[in-house]
């Protein structure tokens, strides 16, 4: 193996390890296509009414990301020959020039495609093996392709912690041969990135809700839980849940697929943290909901908040809410509102308190993306401050 190959292998190993380092936020290094998965997801999750206002800004952000990418030029030069990457490149060109709904949908589908994921790994292996490519060009391509590769795995559910540990283990066992280490890392990524989630180890989960006489309206709580579980099922992260009712309890049984240990913990923690926001809002008793993982109680630390912002009709709205029927955007906004309106009563963190208040005001008062955000909030909030008299 030549010195050029060694340098390329060392570079790609370093970038992969940095991108999965759990102590570094984000992916650990920056390049043009960072966040493209999330931008396309956001665009297609917007309700039509919101897309009319916010959609053009997201499209411009996507175009701005694409305009800095070098993938298109390298495909045109014949450096990249994998058909999936070439189709991706053609689509990038269409979006940069036109930005049509169809081209955006194709981009979104490609980014979440297993065939595209495989194409990235094949291309990386080709660049590592071939000695004829310029090093600077390889570095740029490595960065862009690795970002797409790692973001695909993160979205699939793989955790930084498990990936980072595995990559370090591979490199420590192949210290004398960086090419072998790089290829083994890519082979491992191919294996875990294409393994069906439903074929992974299955863990039993049970959620028990104790029916309390002091709280009779359980419809909204059931819809909240069922919406959360339905979304996980649609993503093929859990099995279909089974619901059973007795006089004292309501139980939900399902299987969660063990992508890795951290994924299971984070998924169940995220659910309990969302539930705890409702628990805090309605003062549910401590044993109101119990979650079992493999017949052992799974818990998260209780919220530190001992107070909550009173928003008129918010509790009534929640009690009458059917989360199953909500759009993804509306469901997310309600969870945000729950989080924003919970705060420590005796906190000395004025910045935290102000950010919570400002986030609520943005959520409630911004009705246009064309005007200055601060001016819009002031214009819409002043009449409320003056008890609905017109602002002067």
Automatic annotation (TrEMBL):
This is Uncharacterized protein.
